[in-house]
Amino acid sequence: MRDEKDGFWNPEVELMGAEDIRRLQLERLKGVLQRCKNSPFYRRWFRDAGFDPDAVRTLEDLRSLPPMDKDTLRSVEPWEFLTVPREDIVRMHSSSGTTGRATVIFHTWKDIQAWTELGARCLYMTGVRRSDVFQNMMGYGLFTGGLGFHYAAERLGAMVIPSGSGNSKRQIYLMREFGTTVIHVIPSYALYLLDVFREMGLDPRRDTRLRIALVGAEPHTESLRRRLEEAYGFKAYNSYGLSEMSGPGVAFECPFQEGMHVWEDAFILEVLDPRTLEPVPEGEEGELVFTTLHREGMPLLRYRTRDLAFVYPGRCRCGREHRRISRIKGRSDDMFIVKGVNIFPMQVEKVLLETVGVGTNYQIVLDMVGSREEMRVRVEVTDEIWHGDVRELQSLQKRITAALRDEILVTPIVELVEPGSLPKGEGKAVRVVDRRVDLGGE
Ligand code: AMP
Ligand code: ZN
After folding, report:
1. Which of 73, 260, 262, 307 to mutate to test the pocket of ligand 1 (most atoms within 8 A of CB)?
2. What pLDDT digit, counting tens, does each position of 60-102 carry?
3. Which of 61, 123, 228, 301 has a CA between 20 and 30 Å from the CA of residue 203?
């Protein structure tokens, strides 16, 4: 029986010391490399790199294998990655990318069980228990957010409402009717849902029993988290994952919320300088690169995520020695350049969401006007501001422009727009519309 008080789903693994974790990683890595010999892709990959899987003696030895990325996955038939017969595969998932060939991950039954366990561990760590009602507002289907934590919450024994994404009024109805206490949600959607609460004359603090939110699947700022916590009255935990590493459950915040613990019994984490592919010193930002240690059907070795973060030095107060990564600053390919300056959408979000009067949605639009680049930030304001004194609106516009200039060193055109007027999808938010590339013509 699990002790409700201790807060650890799997104390033996969660409380393992750093050295024991490394030992376990090496042992598991050796097993994974043996399995990889069954895969036509890995046989070629090893041969072309002159890499001998039998010669690996330390974790560092893995570094002589070149890292792989989405393009590597796309470049071959996904079946070629399999280290098991095809009939052992029970499910596939695919990444949410909208461009290029979909990247597919195949899972065996054991893989699904291992992923479910990791998910249950994450949920339990934040305080989710059997008595909770877990509303899973993530898309079900090829996207891993829905099914991944659906099974995790069931494993834990919570009651799951598989509401999926979208259908906002129904989401709110379900929350109220069945006493939802925990939601799993994309942060931009949680922010947007506040407008719907307001429209319905409801206040989530007063009219729901929400106490925990698991937010992830897209970059978001600390300011966004604070806004959600204030408006909903729940505690929001950052959840990181990607379909190539199975989905949510790769790294998660503990109650101390100083970074997300990467489950190092299941993944080898490297933080590399994206240009040189050399490891960066602890505490410095780099690209996260993962190796799966728990997946049997389709292991991935040294997978480059493009996600930028740093590892927190020191130990976490919760007692877990699984290393902690920072909030994801963004993907290296989210970065855009205006007038020679590198900008991440999250820098813009930070400024906006720290400004009183800013509403629940924003969008960055990049254009060419003649030969000049133009950056426009379209910002929804609150109802009060929109219907209030026009001078308030002007002053807000000036304040945002100045604050953005200080943060990103470029002066954008700030356009304040009516609440609810910017496009809002059900999935991950599209923060940047770059129209500069289309304008060249044929
Ligand atoms: P997908 O494989 O389609 O689910 O997309 C995974 C990607 O979503 C990751 O590589 C990250 O870029 C992003 N992502 C997922 N969780 C987070 C998070 N908590 N914070 C920031 N970005 C995230
Ligand atoms: Zn911790």
Report:
1. 307
2. 999 999 999 999 999 999 999 999 999 999 999 998 665 667 8
3. 123
The Cα–Cα gap between 94 and 80 comes to: 16
Name the residue of 186, 218, 287 whose CB sits within 8 Å of the most ligand 1 atoms, as the mutation to test its pocket.
218
Q: How many Cβ atoms sit within 10 Å of the Cβ of residue 354?
A: 16
**Spatial CA neighbour of 228 closest among 382, 396, 403, 353:** 353
Q: Which two tokens stand for residue 389?
A: 């004194």
pLDDT above 80 for 410: yes
Residues 148 and 247: their CA atoms lie apart, in Å, by 7
Ligand 2 is an ion; its neighbours by CB within 5 Å are 254, 256, 316, 318, 320
> Which atom of ligand 1 approaches the CA of 95 most closely?
3
DSSP 303-370: EEEEEEE-BPPS--TTS--S-EEPPP-EEGGG-EEETTEEE-HHHHHHHHHTSTTEEEEEEEEEEEET
Structure tokens at 127: 């305080």
CA 208 to chain centre: 26
Which domains occur in the chain, in start order? 1-334 (3.40.50.12780), 336-434 (3.30.300.30)
Give tens-digit pLDDT for 196-211. 999 999 999 999 999 9
Determine the Cα–Cα distance for residues 275 and 269; give it in Å rounded to an integer.
18
Q: Which long-range contacts (CB under 8 A, 24 or more apart) does 146-151 make?
A: 147/93, 147/247, 148/115, 148/116, 148/119, 148/241, 148/246, 148/247, 148/248, 148/249, 149/119, 149/123, 149/184, 149/214, 149/248, 149/249, 151/112, 151/115, 151/116, 151/119
CB neighbours of residue 213 within 10 Å: 24
Q: Is 200 helix (H, G, I), strand (E, B) or coil?
A: coil
